[in-house]
Amino acid sequence: MQALKSLLILILPIILATSCSSDGIDVDTVNIVDSTALPSDKTDWWKPQVGVSFDWDLADLEDKDQFDADVVDVDAFTTTKEQVAALHAQGKKVIAYLSVGTIENDRPDVHLLPKAVVGKVYDEWPDEKWLDIRRIDQLKPWLNSRFNMIIQKGFDAIEPDNLDSYSNETGFPISESDTRKYCDFLITMAHKNGLGIGQKNVPELAPEFSAKFDWALTEDAFDQGWQQDMQVFITKDKPVFAVEYTDMMSQKAFSTNVCPKAKSLRFDAIIKKRDLDKWTGRCQ
């Protein structure tokens, strides 16, 4: 019996580490970082100013990749510590793309989320499901793991995606007030760990949160006509990175219509393909 107990002690962690998510998706736990706590001992972080240039590349990085922009936004999971260091060596600041409002079914940390916080499929991105951001206590181990990974890789900031759950069919009664509380939590979490953090879209939050977030990133703001709402960041000397997409406008329309307006607003504007590969169009 004692030998059996010893055997169970040896194999149980292996069984747990190779368990499946709530959807039966196999997860690779090799890259899972300790989710129990964060250092939370920092008093300063990267605070970009108006005038820095931006690029966004969520394709897997290659060692030969070069970027003209001052700031590069890349995937938090697929980008390695060595690649972040290489970008720093080029004089770049590096932002980690991170979903905080959904879970992608191919991420290796799916199992850190209780079933109760995983909601409906995100219609526009069927490989993702919405999360119940009201349950910060239940999300904390998952968030801690992601933030620890980002810290260990040496990123300068995070891009928190999918903050707009209150305007989507998530399966949960999430309100704008819930989102404001979640944003406050994320901002505190980032800053206490030496990370900058930006506001991603949600222009209705800008009047209050332009004082809290360190920069803003917009998608389709000029095409949809809400770019002026983000100008409040510029008045606080915080940059606005404005991204338009080729599936909504041509490069000519971007150059003719968007670039003059962006220059007037002092936004850094680029045009990208919707899958955010390496190609980038810039204002001249």
Automatic annotation (TrEMBL):
Residues 54-279 form the Glycoside-hydrolase family GH114 TIM-barrel domain. InterPro entries: Aldolase_TIM, GH, GH114_TIM-barrel. The keyword Cell cycle does not apply. It comes from the Bacteria. The keyword Signal applies. Pfam families: Glyco_hydro_114. Residues 1-22 form the signal peptide. Keywords: Signal. This is Endo alpha-1,4 polygalactosaminidase. It comes from Dyadobacter luticola. The lineage of its organism: Bacteria, Pseudomonadati, Bacteroidota, Cytophagia, Cytophagales.
